């Protein structure tokens, strides 16, 4: 958990993070330097779904005022996820081998999983393998009721080779992912297959003038949506509606760090990210008129190419005062071919003809600016003030989803978990966010005691929101089109730690806490933005004694009453959850035990979305219930 970060509950493999109220594509997520797109009309394969926890060595969250060198085409901030750095042996140590095997079980959902690591290294060569597999059934809520369409299975395999030559480092990394099924209770569809493979390279070199960091990558995704059994057999007739996507991401990042004297550091870089997407829905036998007789083409040969360049200047004026200034330009070129419906009848034909009659290529010239000053007047205090202007261009579906007359087709275009129907808008402008942020922090020299407070304000010009269409769905859901309007968000993040007992006969005790509040609204109407996380805090009492490490966690979430009335968003009630965790390390073993939601509390997560599996069964619209009590055990053996 990190201050300001909340998770939109998607499938069981991975949620979708939001930073200070801005989520999904508004957050730049880098996986070992790779920019990955969601290749799905429901965003069922977001970037974080492609990296199993067993592969993660470090996660860095930069909220709001993020350096221009950390990526463009985002307005919320940046999340950098990296594997552990390559390990080499020292001179004369010969060959080093190591590895580990982990297994775990979670009672809620009857989930089981395993992962393994293997490592071989010499002084100048290393090879690593990481593999992971997990399977879970549907979970139960705090009332003991099954939450259907929440089952999933996933496996990941990753191999990395690294070669060191004096001060230079060359890395080649590749991997495979296979998800045979993943239920999405808050979507009308489910994932029934996701196959992906990637190749990633990196070259780090030191020269007399500074450092060079060059990365290049390619990823291919085959994705399919349909229904898991809970939805497929929930009516009088078996449901079937295959939806396919074929996508690729490719690109490079080149960054040079050039120190000038002892006080100045310049970063100059270039970044290319090319995305290609084909999205089509094969016809369904026996569905004359609605899903017959051609493939419905949602995105035809869609391309999105972004070329970014930046320069950044970091200066240490004296011991206490430093500044960072950066400017970035991102050119975004988008295009897509002509489309068609399942047939040329009135449900699809006029919309397809209207879309095909227009030019689809769009060019955006986006600019980012970051200015940050940092003051450490004493060894126990720090103050930061920053301003950032960040810009994001629309994604494929925001611009190119085209149906306005087919209720079924509009219901398939949504990654919000709200059950509403959506259509795109060729006339969308990029979003431009202006963020002001201030941080005040105090800490002891060893930082065992610390507190940090960060209030912020963001004004977004041309925020990509929605408007209601004339052809409403009726009942509890609405039809919406993406449109630009201005928006403003403001809030505060707090984090801290307090040691209680140090190195006693009973161990060490400490308190840690993070808290956050965000409010966002349409600047034109005052209506709340969608999925604003209410005030929330996590407090932990931690204990360490020898090989033991334990924690009691308390999660407090206020009621969500500021809701997006345009999307018919439902309110949620306040709740409190208690979690217990402990682990013990002894020689080559680590044992883990946890009880999550100790008191089996019923709750509805504010970002959980609508339980559409129940809506499909004919039940009233309601929020998705959160996880009930789960007893988790795990063991790791190192060798």
Written overview of the protein:
By secondary structure, the chain is mainly β. The protein contains 5 helices and 32 strands. It has helices at residues 229-232, 349-356, 396-400, 407-411, 612-616; strands at residues 5-8, 16-19, 22-23, 27-31, 34-35, 58-63, 77-82, 96-106, 111-121, 125-136, 139-140, 146-147, 152-165, 168-182, 190-207, 210-226, 243-260, 264-281, 296-316, 321-335, 362-375, 381-392, 421-423, 431-443, 450-468, 479-504, 507-522, 536-545, 548-557, 575-586, 589-596, 630-638. The model has no long low-confidence stretch (mean pLDDT 95).
**Main sheet?**
22 strands, antiparallel, barrel
Gap from first CA to last CA: 30 Å
* Cα-atom radius of gyration: 25 Å
Query: What integer is the average pLDDT?
Result: 95
Work out the helicity level.
under 10%
Give start-end ranges of low-pLDDT stretches: none
What is the general shape?
globular
Secondary-structure-derived class:
mainly beta
Tally of individual helices = 5
Proportion in β-strands: over 45%
Number of strands: 32
Task: Give a quick precis of the structure.
It is built from 5 helices and 32 strands.
Please outline the helices and strands.
Blueprint: E1 5-8, E2 16-19, E3 22-23, E4 27-31, E5 34-35, E6 58-63, E7 77-82, E8 96-106, E9 111-121, E10 125-136, E11 139-140, E12 146-147, E13 152-165, E14 168-182, E15 190-207, E16 210-226, H1 229-232, E17 243-260, E18 264-281, E19 296-316, E20 321-335, H2 349-356, E21 362-375, E22 381-392, H3 396-400, H4 407-411, E23 421-423, E24 431-443, E25 450-468, E26 479-504, E27 507-522, E28 536-545, E29 548-557, E30 575-586, E31 589-596, H5 612-616, E32 630-638
Parallel strand pairs: 4-7, 23-26
Antiparallel strand pairs: 1-2, 2-3, 4-5, 6-7, 8-9, 8-32, 9-10, 10-13, 11-12, 13-14, 14-15, 15-16, 16-17, 17-18, 18-19, 19-20, 20-21, 21-22, 22-24, 24-25, 25-26, 26-27, 27-28, 28-29, 29-30, 30-31, 31-32
